[in-house]
Amino acid sequence: MTKLVVGGIVVVGIAIVSFVVAGAKHERPSQPPGTVAAAAASGAGSIVRESSRAAGAPVGDRAVPASSQPANAKSPTTKPTNESGANNVVAALRQAADAKKHLFVFVYEKDDEQTREGRKTFDTAVGELGDAVQWIAIERTAPAEREFVEKYGLKAAPMPLALSFAPNGAIIGGFLGARLTEQQLVDALASPGMQACLKALQDRKLVFLCAQNGTTKSNDTAMKGVDEFKGDARFTQFTEIVKVDPSDAAEKKFL
């Protein structure tokens, strides 16, 4: 029986990974469970393409409300750069993690029409989300942001760029500012289960997503197979177990 359970779980795991890979090849997939597993290693282009697909954000059928930002704003640098007082994005990420909030990052380099329009949309979205998120705007060439830019391969990324980070540091979405929509940012929030899965995938681990609660059957049997797999010395360091309650309304979109 254990062999059957483990076999079934492995098949499910393979199916999930296959679904993630297949989803990355389409322009507008449904909400897949995975995203930029190799974002930091594969460069800025991957962050933008794979993150935006993983977030399942629409390309822009929804009308974007008028921004509260004045239309004649000269540059992103003339606007507040963050709402938290952090000196740079690395500090802002730590602060957001401590507050258990998503952090939205607007990355720009020069004052042009695409940057101004992208920032208007960004400001409108974070304004709608309010206390649910923290945010910061950074200039790519600023010395204080060098560590962040190098870590996420943003040196050659098209600007401007909007990124969404979960409280655990997982990248939830990456969007080109020139085509940024308010809805993309509103959708770039992840449930706890999705956050855990994405973080493990981005750390290049195999994820076992276990959907169970007090009313689901064969919980112990299923977990025995999962625990045995993770207990194997060959897989221990590369395996993450994430448990999600299928009745949790917060996880409905993810599941």
- Described by the principal axes of the CA atoms, the overall outline is elongated
Low-confidence segments, given as residue ranges, are 1-80
Total strands: the figure is 6
Largest sheet: 4 strands, mixed
Secondary-structure content class: alpha/beta
Report the mean per-residue pLDDT as an integer: 73
**How are the strands of the largest sheet arranged?**
2-1-3-4
Please give the radius of gyration in angstroms: 20 Å
How many helices does DSSP assign?
9
Distance N terminus to C terminus? 27 Å
- Helical content (DSSP H or I, runs of 4+): 25-40%
Describe the protein's architecture and organization.
With 255 residues, this protein is α/β, with parallel strands linked by helices. Helix content is 40%, strand content 15%. The chain has a 4-stranded mixed beta sheet with strand order 2-1-3-4, with helices on both faces. The protein is elongated.
